[in-house]
Amino acid sequence: MTKLEIKTISTKPFEGQKPGTSGLRKRVTEVKDNEYYLHNFVQSIFNVLPKEQLSGATLVVGGDGRYFNREAIQIIFQIAAANGVGHILVGQNGLLSTPAISAIVRARKALGAIILTASHNPGGPKGDFGIKYNMSNGGPAPESVTNAIYKQTTEIKEFAMATNVSVADLGELGKHQWDGFSVEVIDSVDDYLALLKTIFDFNQIRQLVANPKFRFNFDAMSGVTGVYGHRIFSQELGVPVQNLINCVPSEDFNNGHPDPNLTYAPELVKKMKAGEFDMGCASDGDGDRNMILGNKFFLNPSDSVAVIAANYKAIPYFKSGLKGLARSMPTSAAMELVAKDLNVPFFEVPTGWKFFGNLMDAGTLSICGEESFGTGSDHIREKDGIWAVLCWLQILAHHNANSASFVSIEDIVQQHWKHYGRNYYSRYDYEEIDTKPANEMMAHIKEQINTKSLIGKRFTTSANGSVLEIASADDFEYKDPIDKSVSSNQGLRIIFTDGSRIIYRLSGTGSTGATVRVYFDKYEKDHSQLSFDTQSHLSSLINIGLVEIAKLQHYTNRNEPNVIT
Ligand code: G6P
Ligand code: ZN
Predict the structure, then answer these.
(1) pLDDT, tens digit, for every residue of 88-134?
(2) Sign (positive/negative) of CA torsion 118, 122, 123, 127?
(3) Residue 119 is among the residues annotated as catalytic for this protein
(4) Which of these, 61, 140, 150, 478, is most buried using a 10 Å CB contact count?
């Protein structure tokens, strides 16, 4: 068998290799134009993994198919081989969705995974590249590990690579072997689909898909889920192929922005507004986010996860009950109403999927979600876009099993609001703001929190002259109930006496400048208050948040957000 030819190569640290909310995200140009930029980061990952665990270990490698992934995969093979890794499982053509990777790590008992994605950020030669490490539970590395990786990147002097390792054709399934090291190209969907089949009743969903009253559309936004969409929705469940759009993975997402929201998925949004389909779904580049729309109806992600939780009995995986429910802090408060009603534990965590992982590993969390179009459960340790779509298909199938007239997504959500009340919810995003004014605006709000000047402040609303009064304000801090670690500075919260909330955060997933996010949440229980337009119903709260408290225009010079959810 071919011996590995291992070389040690001198290098020097690059600044700024600190992983953010979800791994290291950089412009492709920065990664490509700096020799050994990627090598340094990959070696730094291996430097923090205990040698005895690394030796002979299995690692999973794959990504969303964006530009530079193919070259990066070969570099990872070479550095992994030289660092004692025994076996690498790589997706066909280098493609694996983030949730599929999490499933494979767990199913194959791998040591971890290297995921090549910048998620929903644009790709291509001028777009973003991303890399993150996941642990043996299938979830993103905790901060203790990412901080250790970062420290390595600041001290690195050399890396090792096996120069004679490469796999010319990642399109062909099969195993490539060297002495003490192998690479196996695996089907991108098989393991993941096998897991989904243990969670859902595919037969019941097939019946829904075959119902002529139900028209389904899926938009992969030219990301990795095109591969999964074809296999799962079309081949397995019978959705006509013409109802799958943008389902060929592309290195630059077909010159698009693979973020499933009302701004960046215009093709799907247009079809749904025109009433062409009863359910329209989209995934982001790496398949962990989802947007679900009904016929002329926007399903807010915060509502989506609350409704899934409330309908858990429709989903076979949850038939023995729910262990607990959770949401991230800026996500609307709809979820805790369900938790209370079902009498199960509820957790509010900071933004970032990793915070759910500990709760899941401890067996206290079943379903969770975030306003940022992330929904998931403890079947894996990443959020899961296709899973969320299947949940809704299953819930629709369940409600329509014995119904004479078609029960739509909107019907199910309206029923939910009648039972629990409605959280009117919206998020405003201001992208690519200079870091300085963004920080100054946050400092201005923080100052008002610190001096307690906001408490008791009253605002008369323009709509009906009612008064909104601030009850409390803080900088959200979370103490993990499992490992007791404390995460501070997780978003500025303004809470009103009626439970309404305004939240300010700076995005942790951008690659240049700052993105300011402002979140608005207002609860209504009265049945006469459930059917208003979201933006007009929130207008007073929005004005208080943007003008009175943040002075957003003054600091950022922006009149309008780039994206409204
Ligand atoms: C990633 C994480 C999510 C998180 C989101 C926040 O997608 O996986 O868990 O909600 O980032 O993004 P932001 O840009 O708001 O920091
Ligand atoms: Zn993603």
Answers:
(1) 999 999 999 999 999 999 999 999 999 999 999 999 999 999 999 99
(2) negative
(3) yes
(4) 140
Three-state secondary-structure class, residue 278: coil
pLDDT tens digits along 22-59: 799 999 999 999 999 999 999 999 999 999 999 999 99
Amino acid letter, 430: Y
pTM over 0.90, yes/no = yes
- Mutation pick for ligand 1 pocket among 290, 372, 427 (CB with most ligand atoms within 8 Å): 372
If asked whether residues 411 and 449 sit together in one domain, one would say no
Q: For position 557, which CATH number holds?
A: 3.30.310.50
Interface predicted TM-score (ipTM) of this complex, two decimals: 0.95
Neighbour count for residue 72 (Cβ, 10 Å): 24
Residues 361 and 298 in one domain: yes
Angle, CA 417 vertex, CA 416 and CA 422 arms, to 5°: 140
Residue 386 backbone dihedrals phi, psi, to 5 degrees: -65, -35
Structural domains counted in the chain: 3
Counting ligand 1 atoms within 8 A of each CB, the residue from 360, 370, 476, 563 with the most, and so the one to mutate, is 370
Q: Which of 44, 97, 119, 250 is catalytic?
A: 119
Range of the domain at 176: 6-188
Amino acid letter, residue 391: C
